[in-house]
Amino acid sequence: MDVKRDILWRVYLSYILVVAVCILILGKAFYIQQVQGNYWRGLSDSLHQRIVEIPAARGTIYSEDGQMLSTNVPEFDITIDFRVEPLHEKNGKAFRENIDSLSICLSDLFKDQSAEKYKSSLTKAYESNEGNYELKKKLKYRQYLQLVKFPLFKLGRYKSGMIALERSVRLNPYENIGYRTIGLARDENKVGLEKSYDTVLSGRNGRQLVRAIAGGVTVPVQEGEFEIAPETGKDIVSTIDVFIQEVTEDALKKMMIKNDATSGVAMVMEVKTGKIKSIANLGKIGEGQYAENLNYALRATEPGSTFKLVTLLSALEDGKITLNSKLNLEGGVWSYAGRTVKDAEVHGKHEATVLEAFEESSNVGMAKLALGSFNEHPQNYFKYLSRLRLDSISGIDLMGEGRPQVTRPESKFWANTTLPWMAFGYGIAVAPIQTLTLYNSIANNGIMMRPYLVNSIHEEGRVLKNKLPHAYSQPVCSPSTIKALHTALEGVCTNGTGKKLFAGSLYKVAGKTGTALVANGTKAYSESIFQSSFVGYFPAENPQYTIAVIIINHPHAANHFGASVAGPVFKDIADRLYSTYINNKLDTPPVFAIKDSTVFNYAVSKMSLQTIAKQLQIPYQDSSAINTEWIQLKGAGKNAQATIQIISDSTMPNIAGMKLQDALWLCEQKGLLVKCIGRGKVVKQSINQGQYIQKGQLIQLELN
Description:
By secondary structure, the protein is of the alpha+beta class. It folds into three domains: about 50-235, Penicillin-binding protein 2a (Domain 2) (Alpha-Beta Complex); about 245-580, Beta-lactamase (3-Layer(aba) Sandwich), CATH 3.40.710.10; about 600-704, no CATH class. About 35% of the residues lie in helices and about 25% in strands.
């Protein structure tokens, strides 16, 4: 009995202990749930919720005429969470019914694999219950709009499992046009306006409370609710003209390919305002391949003969000489202080005027001019350099402009040859943008304008700030010196080194050629690398634009003179600008020969020509078919003849000679997209006569 009692006592005690522990657990559970419930639920949420940064949309950079040069576009990474419950309801009915049509749609949209392959991979991921199946990365916005309308996906995010992670990417709609000037903001290495105006464009990031769900994806705790709303960056309107930028790049690239050049820069500035209308920077990246790899416009380099303008200005302003003063050119070779000054060509000339020496770009003449005027007081020469702002940066609103490198008389590097060599552009380094600004000040009658690239800053369509042209208060020189410099720069293009280049030009040009031997690192000048330059403005009598072209040629290049390398680029740009922007704006009447012997070519409707001829009582011969709608009118002087103009449904007709209205009507009738350059009548068409055409094809028309 004692043993039995002892056993029962132990059993009862164990039972009581178990009951007590259960009561304790239940009590603790009740306490946690009811008393501490809010605390632990909050702690749980805090482990799955966090505040994330919402990137602000970056502002857009526009051209002066409102075209987007750099902007934000959305991009999407698409994943699928096959674990969502609606996909598995009713034995996966939603998935089974939509997988075939979805696979076909995906194959048609992306064209990267067949519908069967899409179905196989999607089915496998579904059966494996994948929570983060990667469908597509870097999806464009238009593709995304199509994707969300596909079978299954159109059911929505929580029923289909499709998750779109959106991010904003920076895009240049004109690809790499003006890249080093406009810049891109795809990474931390910003350049151009993107870097210089980063604080304006970047805006302010926002903050949002999100909750983590399956697959590491986060969703807002309250859709559309922000802790701090992101503030979109402001837009800037630049001074860049897309047409001028394209013309500048095309002209520069064409010459660089032709001459196998190493690097080059071409710039266009508006004379009266200082607005930079285009900057093209090209560097060689492969055989016949060039890209905007560096901003050569801002890199200081020896200017060569274009710097002779500074020497001439200084000597004229100092009152020591006139354009008619005499110089001995020593036949083109002159020894001074143990060194030899040589002209580009040994011409054998001795006595010449200052004007003639400048027109022929004589190094000997400019060296003697500087010594004769400033040898006793070289500080006076640098007084003019300071007035021309050649000892400081230009002030353009781009980061990274190189400071000029000038050796002054008080420097330990000053020597007897420093001044005469500096007179023709050696022993000094300035950035091309400074040379452009200098020549523009002469075009602008002595008023130096600060170059700039941004017209205004906008916020949601409202103008916050307008940047007005800024003129430096002090004229660069006296009116009499300006007049003499105009004469000298025009003389270069009519009598001097630019004579052949501008012979027969419809407008006058004032400018200066430059050919400089440049150093190549440790190899110094041994590789005979020449820098070809041409800087000038036009039309000379009423300047509208100043253009600078600087090209670095390959070693030992046979063609390396400024007039034959940089000069044609200048002329190509100037011709296009003159015909497009200037010719119709100037108040000067067109120049015609007294005797009308002009060869002409017009395309008109037969009915219109008959009406005009009848009204003006002009006789003409018509050899075209009676039922021809369009005819070609050709001739010279008083003689004109009309011939048939064949218009086919499937091939391109010859529309040269048509006025724009007729050309547009005819092209649009055939379903062509038309891009026009210039004004007047058609002189060139990108699709040649007789070529097969199709609807939606782009044709470019060049007008006279």
